Amino acid sequence: MSDFELFYNDTYIEFSRFLILNAPVLEHVDDLLQEAYFIAFKRFKKKDIRDQKAYLFKVGWSLIKKEYKMKQEYPIDLKVIHSKEDTEKKILESVTLEDLWQYLETKSIVLQKCVYLYYLGMHNQEIADALHLSLVQVKNYLYRTFKELREVLK
Q1: Does the chain have fewer CB atoms within 10 Å around its N or its C terminus?
Q2: pTM score, two decimals?
Q3: DSSP 3-state assignment of 72?
């Protein structure tokens, strides 16, 4: 496995969370992710970057600001958060990603971000803190979403 593949595998989940939290349009997260890794890869080939992870996040933030012309900075939490197993995860695993995406497209951007971050392994309190919501709001979003998904799966 190449150095870049190792780097990609080590940073993918954390960087995806970062983009989901900060991109106002979730449909663009995949494009931002791909473009950021491409830019980082080109740069790593030309110059030795000491902190490659920090450089990747800087590239991601620059792309977000460029595309959405954001003027203000938001605090960024780069800690790695571990996933947990529970009923909601099993529901998410039983739904195809395409079905889940279609369902979530009809919902608010905040609800979409809650579900995506939950799917990536963040706990409810961590999602609440990251999105500046109350824990009760996050629990309600997730409860209603999974309740509707259960009904759709029947």
Answers
A1: C
A2: 0.57
A3: coil
DSSP 95: S
Residues 111 and 52: their CA atoms lie apart, in Å, by 32
* Residue 96 CA, distance from chain mean position: 18
CA distance 9 to 7: 6
What is the separation of C-alpha 43 from the centre of its chain, rounded to a whole number of angstroms? 24
Rounded to the nearest 10 degrees, the angle between the axes of helix 87-94 and helix 135-153 is: 40
- What the block records as the tokens of 31 is 């494009």
Contact 145, 115 (CB under 8 A): yes
User: Positive or negative, the Cα torsion across 45, 51, 52, 54?
Assistant: negative
Within 10 angstroms of residue 115's Cβ, the number of other Cβ atoms is 23
Q: What are phi and psi of 139, to 5 degrees?
A: -60, -40
